[in-house]
Amino acid sequence: MSPLIRRIAVLCVSATFVILACQQLRAQNKPLPSPTFTSSNRIVRPVDWKNVPLRYPVSSLAPLPTGTPSAIPKIQHDFGVETEHNKAERLQRQVAVKAAFVHSWNGYKKHAWLQDEVTPVTGGYKNGFGQRGATLVDALDTLIIMDLEDEFEQAVHATNKIDFTTAAVERLNVFETTIRYLGGLLSAYDLSQAKHRTLLQKATELGDMLYAAFDTPNRMPITRWDWENAALNGDQEADPQALSAEIGSLTLEFTRLSQLTGDSKYHDAVQRITDKLEKHQNRTKIPGLFPILVSPLRERFDTDKSFTMGGMSDSLYEYFPKQHLLLGGRTEQYRTLYETAIEPAKKHLFFRPRTPQGQDILISGDARISSGGSVKLEPNGQHLACFAGGMVALGAKIFNRTDELDVARKLVDGCIWVYESMPTGIMPETFRMTPCYGDEDCVWDVEKWHEGVRYSYSGEYDMQQYEVQDIIKENGLQPGFAKIADPRFLLRPEAIESIFILYRITGDAMLQDTAWRMFEAIHNATIAEFAHSAIADVTIPRGQETQKLDECESFWMAETLKYFYLIFSEPSLDRGLVLAKYGHNGKLGLGIALEGAFVNRSRINFDKLKAWLLQCELQHKDMCAVGTARPLSLPLSCIDCRNRSVVPVLESDQYLALSYVWGTNRSSTCRTAQQDMEYLPLNGISQVIEDAISTVISLGKRYLWVDQYCINQLDPRIKEIQIQDMDSVYAGAYATIVACAGSDANYGLPGISRDRDLQPSATFHDFELFSSLPGLGTAVKSTKWATRGWTYQEAVLSHRILFFTDKQVYFVCPNMARSEAEVVHDNAAHDRIRLERMGMSLNSGMFRDGYRSRNRSHLAELDDHIAEFSGRCLTYQGDALDAFRGLLTRSLFFTYYGVPIAPAANTHHSEHPEVFDFAMARGLNWKPTILNTTQGARSTFARRREFPSWSWAGWVGPVDYPSSFFVVPEPEVCDIKFWVEDENKKLSSLFHIASSLQKTRMIPEQSHVLVVDAHLFRVRFKEDVTEDGYMRDYWCYPALTEGEQVESWHPDRDKKASFFENPDRTTELFHRIVSETWDGMVLWTRGRYAHLRILDWVGDVAHVIGHAQLRFRGRGYWKFTGSQRKRIRLV
Fold it and tell me: Strand 899-901 relative to strand 593-596: parallel, antiparallel, unpaired?
């Protein structure tokens, strides 16, 4: 090629790239279509649908069912206390699901904001549902559930830009618009506890628009609706033919809209459809089931001969039990509809397929009426039909049809089996199997499978020319599948939805493992550059790249990922219980009488608060007796709220204490009493203290203790003594006022100096509906107050607490729990349930996702305290034990630098040094708690130099103890001894120091140096890193020299270790870890296990920097694989 031609070629290629780059840049800069664009040339502005006259008005609206809710049986399984290992694994999985959501959401936000869908491969958008931001609206509730608060707020703000009174398509799909848009707005409004009124306003706008689709002579809706014609008041009539799912799956959204707005017209619209369904249910070709096609215009349900619980009919049945729940069981109509349908479904639709391993599973198939009039099974399967397992499980619980839980399990197992049978681990859209007729017919028979394949493909292949094996190979059929008609995977949610429901009902943890395998398979096969994409073929060979279809429907983020996230969530039910206030008491399923109550946003009903305190004082007496565990070292001073002076108080005087977050601006208010009767300043005092003073007076009390004014801030000696007495101050208070809301002392107490959040409510003919607002655990754990170290001890040691939140005031004592939004009729059972189940307890369970039983052992309770406190923030790291000292002094166990010395048998003390030393060894075996972020699971630990490395107090970060800490029997070998070294390097036995204590079990912190006589075991580490370079843990193995017994070490199990500081691969510590040999101090051994602390030597002293556990092939082998006895100085 000549140089001239070469130059021309280069210039042409360069020009091509420049043109393509400019086009791409132009495409990126091109504004996205507006969510107010309409398909109409005659309607160019929002439509006021309320003022569009109805051609066929309703003379009498069907009201919402009233009366007492029926006692619906409990649905959710009683989950026990989760092990730390299981919790860590569950949270790691949940983080992965959340990361997948964030990836797809970010792609949508960047490339398709306010459009219906993002195109995951090309980074564009699609608009098939009216161009009104279907993904954004549909996924609002997922944003709430995943605690993506900033993203949720941004999305809610964006909904203000959407015109829900018009559409960008000429014919609107009423069904899709209802479930994606109206359902999305209402669920977000409910889950956000009515925080955003705009969501209900937008839902009402859309509801008014959709209501016009029912303006037909027989009030049956138009499913593909010419909205422009309706807006211009044109004539319209119901469809001559429609899908049964599209007219029967509107009830939940329209009913909920009536409940929230008090306008019964929406409920009336769908109630008329339900009445038609009930009227014709037993007149169809298969009585009890509804055909795929019906005629709303002629009100005929008996012409079509095809039946299914798959696409086009599915949600019609799904809504029956859910609507029963939504209405509180006040009508039997939806129960009747469900029970009438489930019997013929079991007989004609659910079938057992013939599989190679003979699994006892069910698939929801199709049925049709033959030319002879008989019912013929079509053994087809659909991903859409996988909802049936969850529906049947829910119906089995709420309708007391418990024998059908077995049917539900088999349906769910059927979908799981199809997932796991595919090379990709993902279920196809549709498929066909060979059914077996009776158990004896279900024995695997290859020839019957081949016959099924031939029959299924007879219309597509010339069976004279094709061998069945060729058909199987060409179509990627796995054994048992007669045909895969549609091999796509469209990111559907039905399978994981049913698995999640069944897990919550049965508590079977194996379903979580199944869900994780499904998620990994789906994530790996569908992830694309901008989001996750539907794929063309799930039957491709394992390891082959999937073909992306560049589609991501809204249900991927709105449903599929939501259910994956929820199955790895702690199974709590604390997002807010809805209560009804009737002329007579409402009932919960447990027969507990209670009523909802209105919460005034700007004024607290102090008569109610005083009644709670008085009830506790009179009824609980000794159980909630107020008093200190030890006498105060100095006389107590409090604020006299009547004259705002700081005065000494007598032991007989009742006082309230304030627990709050100071914040950063302290100088203007940090004043102290230098002498008796000093008055507080009239100005400059923080708002929370002003409000607390007002609260004390409103409660009819006089004295308030506040650290800022009641601790001498100027005399360091007195201040230190008073700080050490703070635990007794809170333990001795009549009640503690907790300021949960806001981030500092200037926020004040909601309900006194600022308004509280709006309480969701609705009014009907003879009753009002109120939200109980979130449970205390939910209301408290997300506050800044719950992140601070000092506030934990203040709360746990208090005998009575009034929690002031942005929602309402909660009251808790050791035997009772109350809140403003509930009126509880005295019932000890109710108090017990609330204390144990709803996080309303004065222990660590108040701040956790799960509850902590009041009957936990003393050792487990101490571990809970350490786990909760260690994860909290301290302004001064030197406070790490002072802020926890009150709990340590009250412990039944000896403690040293916060380390519990607890014998294995769970006894409180020991007279034998060997048992004491083993108890100390057990206390040293703490470990960092795994924290989870969107980047993965890892511990975030940093050294706290004020305390020794061998104590959890020597590290900044959350810790806990392994489950063996509570149940481990005596060790097989624990040849370890402990001494304390003083400043003169004199050694004193830790056992003898403890034995000499008289009034406390908290061993004085004499020295950081703990001298330990123990075995050392030489180990090495290999890296086990995440993709972003962080260490999850390390592979640990013996550092054996030539001639030692390598075979003694178990090479395949229990060889992981972790270093507290968790370095990334760029640090010096990481390179030392993987290149050097380390000493592991043996705490104890039992059987084949050795528990080690990893040491880092600095001169003649050692720092504890990690932990490990090794498993050997036989008992005692660790003695012969490089261990040596040594006296170690730990600091």
Answer: unpaired
Residues in the chain: 1131
Task: Report the C-alpha gap between 193 and 567 in whole angstroms.
Answer: 22
Q: Which residues pair with 1091 in a beta bridge?
A: 1084, 1109
DSSP structural state of residue 883: G
Helices 494-506 & 405-421 angle (0-180, nearest 10): 140
Please give the single-letter amino acid code of residue 650.
L
Question: Full-prediction pTM beyond 0.70?
Answer: no
Helix (H, G, I), strand (E, B) or coil at 816: strand
466 sits in the region (left: phi over 0; alpha: psi -120 to 50; else beta) called: beta
Structure tokens that stand for 305 in this block: 């001969």
The pair of three-digit structure tokens given for residue 639, joined into one six-digit string: 């604020």
Q: What pLDDT is stored for residue 1124 in this prediction?
A: 80
Does the pLDDT value for residue 8 go beyond 80? no
Active-site residue (options: 205, 494, 864, 868): 494
Query: Using an 8 Å Cβ cutoff, are 958 and 937 in contact?
Result: no
List, as one string, the DSSP characters of 253-291: HHHHHHHHH--THHHHHHHHHHHHHHHHGGGSSSTTS--
User: Nearest 5°: phi and psi at 748?
Assistant: 80, -170
Q: How far apart are CA 1113 and CA 543, in angstroms?
A: 36
Calpha distance 156→184 (Å, rounded) = 11
Q: Considering Cα of 803, then 805, then 809, then 815, what sign does the dihedral take?
A: negative
- Which tokens is 901 given? 């010395």
Domain ranges within the chain, ordered by starting residue: 84-568, 606-667+677-852, 877-1130
pLDDT, average across residues 42-67? 93
**Candidates 429, 868, 882, 1033; catalytic one:** 429
| Known catalytic residue at 176 | yes
Q: Please give the Cα distance from 383 to 400 (Å, whole number).
A: 27
List the beta strands (DSSP E) in 120-204.
124-126, 171-173
The answer to whether the CB of 772 falls within 8 A of the CB of 74 is no
Burial class (CB in 10 A: 0-12, 13-18, 19+), 799: buried
Average pLDDT, integer, range 558-565: 97
Residue 444 φ then ψ, to 5°: -65, 130
Angstrom distance (rounded) from CA 672 to CA 691 = 19
- Checking if the pLDDT of 1018 tops 50, the result is yes
Rounded distance between C-alpha atoms, residue 225 and residue 219, angstroms: 14
In single-letter form, the type of residue at position 319 comes to Y
Residue among 82, 84, 89, 176 flagged as catalytic: 176
**pLDDT tens per residue across span 402-434:** 999 999 999 999 999 999 999 999 999 999 999
Three-state SS at 822: strand
Do residues 283 and 296 touch, judged by C-beta distance below 8 A?
no
More confident residue, 582 or 990: 990
**Nearest alpha-carbon partner for 814 in 791, 838, 796:** 796
Question: What percentage of the chain's residues is helix, strand, coil (to nearest 5)?
Answer: 40, 20, 45
Choose, from 314, 574, 831, 882, the residue flagged as catalytic: 314
Look at the block and give the residue holding tokens 């030692």.
1044
Please spell the DSSP secondary structure of 852-864, one letter per residue: --TT--HHHHHHH
CA distances from 111 to 33, 97, 154, 491, 529 (A): 12, 21, 16, 19, 12
**Integer Cα distance of 687 and 753 in angstroms:** 8
**Domain 84-568 falls in which CATH fold?**
Glycosyltransferase (1.50.10)
In whole angstroms, give the CA distance from residue 411 to residue 360: 10
Distance of CA 46 to the CA centre of its chain: 38
Rg (CA), the chain: 34
Q: Once rounded to an integer, what is the mean pLDDT over residues 915-924?
A: 88
User: In 351-460, where does DSSP find H-type helix?
Assistant: 387-398, 405-421, 446-456
Query: Would residue 640 show up in a list of annotated catalytic residues for this protein?
Result: no
Structure-model confidence comparison of residues 889 and 897, the more confident one: 897
Contact in structure between 605 and 820 (CB atoms under 8 Å): yes
Closest CA to 125 of 650, 554, 512, 636: 554
